[in-house]
C-alpha cells in the first residue's frame, strides 16, 4: 500500500511550485534546498499572489482580502507618512470626492501600478511583516477579486456576496492543495469580512474534503472597518452609482450596494450562520477574531462623525478583540512603516495569533510522542496514532530538515538494533518496531516541544525511506518476529569476491538468503538509507576486470532476478517494423530522386497548372510542400533507423570497435538539430568520423530539404525561354485600304442611313480620337522631360520615339528609321530641311496573339500568362519632309499668285480644274524640285495650293491625281526665320523592322525594333528580297480624311485651328533640331501614327499583296515567324543564388539510395535498435554499472566519457543482454541462475543463443564495416 506520507499519494512533486493563479498549488516540502523562495512577480488584480514564502516550509498561511472598490495591492499600501498632528478635517483630504472617484474608477493595470510604485514608495504587507522574525515561517498572500460597483469602460461584476464568497472559497482550497490542514489567518477590510463570513459558512456545509478543510483550519480573522450591520452610506452610494450609471450608460452592481444597507436581509442572515461556524472552528482550532474600527471620519460624509461605517456596525462580537485605528475608512489598513503606532496594534494581534498556532502544533506533537511511551505500540494504538499523525503530517514538514540532522547525530549510520540473544531489555521489548525503539529510547531528551516535532518528522522519514521498517501509518503491519538482525560487516575486506561461490550470503540487515548475489554488492545498515558499500575486487582479476556489477555503486540487477529476453532481437523483413522501414526507404528514394530530377529539368506546366489549368496553382504548391514534407519525414525516419541498425550491429559484433555515447547521441542531431549546439561535445568526438560526417550531412539536408524543395521544385510563375513558333493570322486586305477600313469601322450608323459618308465619318472620328490622344501623350512626354531639367539630343535616333496607344490599354512605341542629318541637309540646300520617317508596329500581331488557334495563354491578374513575343513582320512607316521657303519661292505653287488668277474658297473646286492635267504638263519648276522629287526627272508633279496661309495656319493639298503624297503648307510665327514651311507626307511598308509585343494583366507594350544588325527577327532576314521604299498610293486617301478631321486645312478660310497653331510653333528656327522642342516633322509623324496602325489591321504579313481584289470577303490564313516567351508555372528557382540548394536535393537522393541499399543488403531484417531511448534504458537498467562513468550519474557524461567504447553482450546462461564498456569486455560475469549441487547435463544451444552468436560473429555482407 502507499503510505500516507508518500508524496505521490498527496499529488506532490519535488522542486515544483505553481503559483496561486494556477489551478492548484504544489509545494516543495521535501526538497533539500530549503533556501528556495519563489520569485516575486507583479500583484495580480484577481486571484492569489504570493507576497512572501517561508524560507523553510510554512507553518501558517496569512491571506489579505480587500474590500469594496479595493485592490489587492493599493488597499494595503501607504503612499507617504501620515501626519498625526494634522486635524481630522485636513487628514481626511479628498473626503467624499475621493470616495466617489474610487467608486467609479477603473482599476489601473500592472504598468500603472509599477509606474506609481517608482514614483511613490509604498509599504506592502510583505515588506512590513517580513521584518518580523515571528512571521518568517508564514506564507503571506493577497487575494484580488472584482469589487467595483460600476466601471466606466468595461462591465462591472454583478455577482452577489454569496457568489463572490463561493469563488473565494474555491480559490483558497486550490491554493492550499499541498497542505489542506495548515493553519489559516485572514486579514480583511470592509466588504472582505462579509466575504470571509459567507465563505466559511459555505465551507462548513461542504462535503468535499478540501473545501471543508478551509473552515476547519482557520485560527483567526482580523477585520478592518467591516459593516457587520450595514452602513448608512449605502443609500447615498447607490444614489451616486445610479447617477453615474445614467451618465455613462453603464449598469452598476445593485446586489452589493443593497446588501450593504442597514439591516439588510443578507447582513442579518450571515452573522447567525457564522456564529455556528465560529463555534465549530473554536472547538477545532481555538478560533479567535480581532476587529479594528475606523477612528476618524471623512469630510463630506453625512453623519455627526463623518464615518463611513458607524461604531455600532463595525463592532465585533463578544469574543472579538475590538480596537480603534486612528485613520478613516479608506486609510485604516495602510501603514507607512514598522514604526507606525497604528501598525504596532495590528502586528501585536498577528503575533498573538501566530503564537497560538505554534503552541497548538508543539502541544499536539508532544502528546503523540508521549503516548508512545505510555501505551506502547499495540495494534489498536497504532490505528489511533495513525489518525493523529495524519493530522500532524502538514505540521511536521517544517521541521524535517532539522530532524534529519539531529537524528543522524544521535543514531550513527552503522548503529543497528541489538540482537535478541545479547540484550535482555531488548527481549522484553522485542515486539516494539525498530523506529519506535529509537523514539522511546530518546524520550527523556525529547521533553522540548521542538525536538518532539523532530521525532515526528523522523518517523516520517523512516516510513518513506525503508521498505522493511514499520510504519505507524500502516493499518496492517506484517509480522516481523521471524527476522533475525545482526550487524553488517564494517568493511568490504570482510567479504571476498570469491564468496559468490557460497550457497548462502548475508545481505541487508543480516537477513539470511539462500540465493547468490554478486559478491561486490554489500549493504550497510543505516537509519536513512540502505545502499551498497565500497568496491570489492578479487586479486585474481586485473585492474579493469570486474564481475557483474564490478565497481558498481548501486545494484542495478538484483541477484534474484533473471532477465532472459522474451523475443528475438532480429525481426524478419515481413514484420511490421522492417516492412515499414523498407517501404519508407523506397518512398524516400523514389520521391527524392523525382524531386532532384525535376529540379534539374525545370519543367514548365503550361495549361496543366494555372487559373484555367487542370490544377490550381495553390493546390500544386500545397501538394509540392506536402510531398516534400513526407519525403523529409520518411528520409529522417529511414536514416535514423539505418544509423541505429549500423550502431546496434557494431555493438553486437565481437571484435568491433564498439560504440560511444557520442555515437549513440547522433540520432538526436537529426531529430533535434539544436542539440548540436546545446550538446556540442558530441560533435567533437563523432563529427570527424565517417559515420558522424554522414549523420551531420543528413542533419543539414533534413533541415533544409523542405526549403530546397520550395526553392527549386515548387511551381512558380516564371518567364520561360523564347521559343520559336510559327503563328497564324487571318488576313483580309493589303496595307492602307481606305475602303476596307471604312466598311469595318465600328459605328451605330448603318449603311442604309448614310450610304455615302458613313465610313468617312466614322474614320474621321477615330482619327480625331486616336491622333490627338497620341499627339498629346507625346507632347506630355516632352513637357515632363523639360520640367525635369533634361534635354533631347540633336540626333534623331536619340530623341523621344514616336508613340501612341491602341485599344486603350496597349502602349505603342515606334522607331525613327531612314534617319538623316538635318544640319547637313539644311546646309546643303541652304534652307531648313527636316526629313523624318516613323515606323509603327503591324497591328495584325495583336489579333494573332489573342487568337486561340495560336495557343498563347492570355494574361491573368495573378501575373500568370504574361508573355513576350517578337514577330518578323513588315511594318508601316510614314515619311515627313519639311522645307523652309519664302513667298517668291512658293509663287509657282500658289494659284492666287498666278497671273490673272484670284483664289475663291467657295469656287476652289471649280478653279482647281483649271490646273493643267497630268501627263500633259509637269507644271511649274521650283527651287525645291530636287528635294521633293518633282518634275519629269522624278516622275511626280508638285502640289498646287489656292492661297498662302495666314500666320500659324495650315492648308492641305491631297487632290493631285495618281499621287502618293499629301502636302501641308503652313506659316510659322513671325518670330522664326522661316516664312513658310512646306511638308510632304507619304507612307510605306518597311521590311527593316520587327515587332515586339509584351502583354500583362495591367496592360501591354507594342513596339518596333528597326534597322539593327543584331536583330535576328527583322523582317528582311526572312524575306531578303522585300522592297523598301514602295510608297503606298492608298495611304494618301486615308491621310486626306485624317488631315481634314484634325483641322489641318482650316487655313483655307482662316479657321485659326489650335492644332495648326501648335504645329507651326514647333517649326525650328535654325538648321538643327532644338533640344527643348519636337520639330514640325516629328510632330506630324507622331500625329499620323494612328493611320499606320489602323491601316494594318487584318493586313497581310507578306511584302506584297498576292490577290487581284483589294480586300477579301473571307479572310485567309497566313503564317509568320515569331518567338514567344510566356510567364507560366515552372519548377525552378527565382534567383540564381537559390541554386545552392541543388546539393541538398542531390545528397538527399544519394543518401536515400545508400540507406535503401544498406537495408537490402541486410535482407530487410531489423535488429532491436539499442540506441532508441526505451531500448537503451531497458538495456542499461539491467546491466552492471561501471567505474568508467564515475561521476556521470547526476550531471551526465562529460569529456572523455563521451568516447568510451561500449558493446552489447549476452549472459549465455541467462540469455540476458547487457551493455558494458570495451575495457571490461573480457571480465567474467556472475550468473544470476540458481546454484545446484546436482550434476547438470550439457545445455543445448537455444535459438536465442544461436541468434546472438550469429549476429556477434559478423556473418553479414557488411560485417567488415562494423
Please give the number of β-strands. 29
State the helix count: 41
Helicity level: 25-40%
Q: Give the averaged pLDDT, no decimals.
A: 74
User: What is the beta-strand fraction?
Assistant: 5-15%
Largest sheet: 8 strands, mixed
What is the straight-line distance between the termini?
A: 50 Å
Task: Characterize the overall form.
Answer: elongated
What structural category do the secondary elements indicate? Answer: alpha+beta
Uncertain regions: pLDDT < 50 for 5+ in a row?
1-40, 82-121, 270-275, 373-377, 393-452, 460-561, 1232-1240
Alpha-carbon Rg, integer: 54 Å
Present the secondary structure layout.
Layout: H1 7-10, E1 47-52, E2 60-65, H2 88-91, H3 95-104, H4 110-119, H5 125-129, E3 138-144, H6 161-175, E4 184-189, H7 191-205, H8 209-217, E5 218-224, H9 233-248, H10 254-259, H11 265-285, E6 288-294, H12 311-314, E7 321-325, H13 341-375, H14 379-396, H15 400-410, H16 424-428, H17 434-441, H18 449-465, E8 505-507, E9 511-513, E10 523-525, E11 530-532, E12 570-571, H19 576-601, H20 617-652, H21 661-664, H22 666-671, H23 675-678, H24 681-686, H25 690-712, E13 715-719, E14 723-733, H26 738-743, H27 758-787, E15 803-806, E16 810-813, E17 815-817, H28 822-829, E18 833-839, H29 844-850, E19 867-871, E20 875-885, H30 887-890, H31 908-911, H32 929-932, E21 954-957, E22 966-970, E23 980-990, E24 993-1000, E25 1003-1010, H33 1019-1022, H34 1035-1045, H35 1058-1065, H36 1080-1087, H37 1089-1094, E26 1111-1131, H38 1142-1161, E27 1166-1167, H39 1173-1181, H40 1192-1195, E28 1206-1211, E29 1216-1221, H41 1247-1256
Parallel strand pairs: 2-3, 2-4, 4-5, 5-6, 6-7, 16-25
Antiparallel strand pairs: 1-3, 8-9, 10-11, 12-27, 13-26, 14-26, 15-16, 17-18, 18-20, 19-24, 19-26, 20-23, 21-22, 22-23, 24-25, 28-29
Helix pairs in contact: 6-7, 6-8, 7-8, 7-11, 13-14, 13-18, 14-18, 15-18, 19-20, 19-38, 20-25, 20-38, 25-38, 27-34
Protein name: DUF676 domain-containing protein
Main location: endoplasmic reticulum
Biased composition (Basic and acidic residues): 477-503, 528-546
